[in-house]
Amino acid sequence: MPPLTSSSTAPTGTGTPGRGIAFGTVAYFLWGIVPAYWPLLQPAGSVEILAHRIAWSLVVMALLTAVLGRWAGIRRLSRRGWLMVTAASVLIAVNWGVYIHAVNTGHVVEAALGYFINPLVSVLLGVTVLRERLRVAQFAALGVAVVAVVVLAVDYGRLPWISLVLACSFGFYGLLKKTVPLDATASLTAESLVLAPVAIGYLVWLGPGGTFHDHGWGHALWLVSAGLVTAVPLLLFGAGARLVPLATMGMLQYLAPVLQFAWGVFVVHEPMPASRWFGFGLVWAALAIFTVDALRARRLPVTDLA
To answer: I need a labelling partner for 64 at 20 to 30 A (CA). Which of 33, 127, 277, 293 fits?
Structure first.
């Protein structure tokens, strides 16, 4: 999922808020059901899947960037801009790789937790890195979230590292994206350009040891489709973000982890003992505090979310 930033989500296009909400809802719905997709790419391993996702994302995003006429912005990118893109590329590769690993090893619920706590990590980064002032409600939300992580660590018998890596990598990714003067499409294309040589090199090195050639056309097409799985929700998100306020998209972002959590609990039946429900309940309480505070801070009428 792309980070919500003021530059990427300010309404700048023409259209109705209803269409924008529809685009955003479909985008987050697709991100929410993506746990159903990654197991279809097995028996490919997580690293091979990640490499294919990067390689085919470059193909799709390069074509989209050409159609939309965004290559000029990439060519004008400064050396500092490319450094920021490179750092963002590493973070999103880590995020994608850990998420694929989590889904394909039966940790969908723990991965969903990462995206539940991501908004709170972004607030923490705003305070520690950007020196933003922390409101009382935000402080309370972070405190509740810390308690939740402790409860879940006791429940798992370890730190929920998948959740923390996903939340932190995506939080820092969003922070870096604020410094890159590219829209979402051109930015992902630039990131794919940085990552593709490593991904393609790995696939060439893997050679016969990979699954692309040895498991039929159906499997090969599933691997190729990873580019579309990356691009389609992003385009829908970009279209929606231009038509509705940042706060509205902020409300929609919870749809994805809710669906991911539901998939993990009700479809693949990952264990959810009472202590884990309690930990998640604390996370949701923290998000409720955070969300109400954000709405009050922006003075957003409730009717704007309808």
So the answer is: 33
- Cα 182 to Cα 77: distance, rounded to the nearest angstrom: 8
Structure tokens at 160: 């929920």
Token duo for residue 266: 């009700």
In the block, which residue shows the tokens 């997709």? 37
182: left (phi over 0), alpha (psi -120 to 50) or beta: beta
The residue assigned the tokens 């982890």 is 257
Looking at the chain, list the stretches that DSSP marks H as alpha helix, in order from N- to C-terminal side: 6-9, 17-32, 46-68, 71-75, 79-104, 108-128, 136-156, 161-177, 184-206, 216-224, 226-241, 246-252, 255-262, 274-298
* CB hemisphere CA count around 170 (13 angstroms): 27
Q: Which two tokens stand for residue 301?
A: 């009428």
Record the tokens describing residue 1, joined without a space: 């999922």
Is 303's pLDDT higher than 90?
no
In contact, 45 and 206? CB cutoff 8 Å: no
Distance of CA 9 to the CA centre of its chain: 15
pLDDT per residue as tens digits for the range 90-132: 999 999 999 999 999 999 999 999 999 988 888 888 888 878 8
Q: How far is CA 196 from the centre of its chain?
A: 19
The answer to whether residue 305 scores a pLDDT higher than 80 is no
CA angle 179, 197, 203 (to 5 degrees): 135
Phi then psi for residue 77, to 5 deg, are -65, 135
Contact in structure between 145 and 283 (CB atoms under 8 Å)? yes
- The answer for residues whose C-beta is within 8 angstroms of residue 13's C-beta and 6 or more apart is 239, 242, 243
